[in-house]
Amino acid sequence: MNVRHVRLLVWKEFVQLRRDPMLLRVVMIMPFIYLIMFGYVVAADVTHLPTAIVDLDHSVTSRQIDSAFSSTAYFDVKARPDTEAALQTLLNRGDVRVAIVIPEGTQAALDTGKVAGIGIVVDGADSQSSSVGTSYAMRIIGDLNEARAADLGAGALPGVDARVRVEYNQTLASVNTMIPGLLASVLMVTLMVVLSQAVVKERESGTLEQMFTTPVSRGEYLVGKLLPYGLLASAQSAITGFVGTWWFGVPFTGSVWIVCLGLLLFMLTTIGLGLLVSLVSRTRHQAQQTIMFVMLPMFILSGFIFPIESMPAPIQPFTKLIPLTHAVAILRASFVKGSGLADLAEPLLYLVGFAIVIFGAAIVAVRRRLSE
Amino acid sequence: MEQSVVRIRDVIKKYGAFAAVDGISFDVAPGEVFGFLGPNGSGKTTTIRMLTGSIAPTAGTISVLGNDAVRHPDRIRTRIGYMSQKFSLFEDMTVAENLRFYGGIHNLSKDVFAERREYILNMADLRGRESVLTRDLSTGWRQRLALGVATIHQPELLFLDEPTSGVDPVARRQFWDLLYEMSGAGVTLFVTTHYMEEATNCTRLAFMYRGKVIADGSPRELREAHAAGGPLPSLEDVFVELVG
Amino acid sequence: MNGLDRVLAIVVKEFRHLLRDPRVLATVLLLPVAQMLLFAYAISFDVRNVPTIVIDQDHTPASRAYLQSYSAGGFFQVRGEAAGIGDVDGIFRRGEASVVVVVPAGFERAITSGGKADVDVLVDGSDPNAARMGQAYALALNRLYGQQVAAAWAERQGLDLSAAGGLDPRVRTWFNPDRQSSIFLIPGLVAVILMIVCVQQTAVTVVRERDLHTAEQMVVSPVTHTELIVGKLLPWTILAFFDMGLVVAVGMWVFGLPLRGSVALLLVASLLFVFASLAMGVIVSTIAPSMETANVMALMLAFLPGLLLSGLAFPLESIPVVLQWVASVFPARYMVDISRGVFLKGDGFADEWRQLGSLALYTVIVLFLAVRLYARKVRT
Questions:
Q1: What's the CATH number where A96 sits?
Q2: What confidence tens digit (pLDDT) does each residue in A33-68 have?
Q3: Would the CB atoms of B106 and A215 count as touching at under 8 Å?
Q4: pTM value?
Q5: C115-133: per-residue pLDDT in tens?
Q6: Which residues of A lie inside 8 Å of B (Cβ-Cβ)?
Q7: Distance between terminal CA atoms of chain A?
Q8: Predicted ipTM of the assembly
Q9: What CA–CA distances, in Å, run from C194 to A18, A117, C368?
Q10: Fewer CB atoms inside 10 Å of the end CB: C or N, chain A?
């Protein structure tokens, strides 16, 4: 590999980038905008969830339950239908996002020392009702139980005293896990979009053909595309990472080296993917279509916003085929849990594997496709 | 006979079942201005690509400047130049930047590069316009710059793929003057075109049609061969006769 | 040749361009449907089958019975046992489990002697949602178990049982028995996907045209800029509607999405929305000097904000006011509201007039901007 050639290719790429200031601005500034948006939108506090309460018991306990929910800021009791069937309309229309159902016979069950089930109805598609809403509702019921137990002297009875502790990210702030994931996602979006055009552009203008009649080798060409964008992406990541963690006060407990390694590998795979698309596309338009087609599912299925554990079982294994999934996992674990090299061996190895496969494919594609 | 600069024997290039080049053979002697004519889709561009070592033939042998173009294309690339129909310049870079890039790619030393840069700027009449973006140049200038870039390393053999398409007749004439200068200096030229008038500028011609070479010789030879005892037909007539 | 004929000519030309490239067509038509299927099927915030690892240091029937109860519900998924507490950090760091339950020695003894048995439940906070749920479920499970223990004991001792009774929260997920439908999501998705497709397409189309210098040719002929823009946008509008129809059809068929409200409202809103999105694309294209930039900008403007600021996945009521203002800059939020209203709530023009008005105003402004910017751009 001729170093002078690579240096020239990198220089050329930077010259061309400079001539497109809008692109640079977009690549460097957009991440900040996202940072802000994501950080605030996702971390928003849930309060005033529209709620419905169906009291079928009409007892002291059921009224206690009702007032417990009414008096908290988390729930905004909007309706008190007489039947459970009435909930259907309310939930369907979105008038209400959470419903509490107190069945008949609740008080009776309690008085005889039995367990009375209280229904908490949520919509699985709604992020807030299904997690935050549920957990608050459960907490309220739990508190009621505690109060009741204390009143009735259940302290004398045996039971289980569970100490539930949160390890890592004790504040359960969503920001702390979103920002690391955001780093990887933004990187992916900008790199793939820019790179998917990189080669096609040259093929369309004929400069690619020209270049390969000169002593430039295919390897040099690939490296010459890799380096400048890799450098650019690194700068973007570093800045975004620093600002993000500083602005939102995201704690960082892991090793900077592992984060760098993970990001580097991820960059390689992403650049490789972008190049691959660019190599197999005939026109820039085609390249852009393909990238859109590829990127959106990757984004959705990577576990960045929507948790993988909540996805249907058949889909879950496929999420491992997405480089972003592993990047997000590595970054999150590093930031929040301080995971070490051994802990993250699996996702790191996946990324290494991807990098090898993808670049191998790119090299083959360069050899075959360029001449057509 | 001197060593041919280009020697093609029984070359076939297939894309699936379609034969873009279907068994062609010819030689190009050093110092010639070799014209490669034929309509679009005749296989001209594919042939040139095989000659520059960009693609490999399905069958046959190709020797360029004494090297096997199939097995050692890299050895050829330092000694050939290539100028394409699109003028293949980096549109978003300046004249000077384009020159610097190609000069470096061909590993020119600082002195040699300085010399060649001067020469090309003069030849292309771009003195004082070094910082102009290539895309802001008009076609005539871009054409000449493209020629300069293709010859910055003073190749022995220069491929020109439809170098004058889209260029006005005056610029075209000037361009050919430049080509003659190079030929005079000993550079072998391999030109493809579908303009018949340009064919007369060449020392030898090959007609290509549907993947085959249907005629091969100097312009005069070809015209005489198809005279049939009457006045000399034009090259266009010759071609029409061959194809029809 | 009057204005309408010229517009028609441009429309035909644009269509011919499109049909020439099958890949483009496939993407434009199939992508939205595929995406919708993917989203609706795969996306959920419903937490289940949380990987759990148990550590039993008591090794008694009581401790085993207790740990068994974790496998009973659908929330915890016990993956295995670990030897000792020293393992816990590693388990979390490696991501092997999100919850670890530790039963210390003396569990059975405490229970059978009428006391309280201690149990430690550790939850990985790196997934805040799952952690919150994990906390809640763990506490609930333990209370339930404790109550059962207490009730059994009280009965044996002949004590008043009422103290042992307790409330057990039972979570039911509406609409989602088998995660078949996410009715809440789909109407919003329809809007967002459309927007993404529209903004992207136009941004790139116009830039491409410019790059190929054909735009200059157009300006020479007697076409006004308005006619040009309308002519360019029309084919995409038609395609977008086709898309939307497809997406809605699939939504209704496969996911049982109801359509309770005014179809007329939906169509009018969609028309406005599509035009607004396309106009946004044109604006992007005038600002972007190259195709990549057009691409990137269109994506940045349509894609992520569409997902975040439209009310699709995250309700807008909870976010800071500043961001709510920003959200108003994107037409998606109005469309999502109207869409949900029509599909789920049975709304008509009267119910959504405010949203519709905002959308109409927005569309007019954006179209105006688009024409002006485009005209200026081509003139330079």
A1: 3.40.1710.10
A2: 777 777 777 666 667 788 999 999 999 989 999 999
A3: yes
A4: 0.80
A5: 888 899 999 988 887 888 8
A6: 2, 4-5, 7-8, 11-12, 15-16, 19-20, 205-207, 209-217, 370-372
A7: 25
A8: 0.85
A9: 33, 44, 21
A10: N
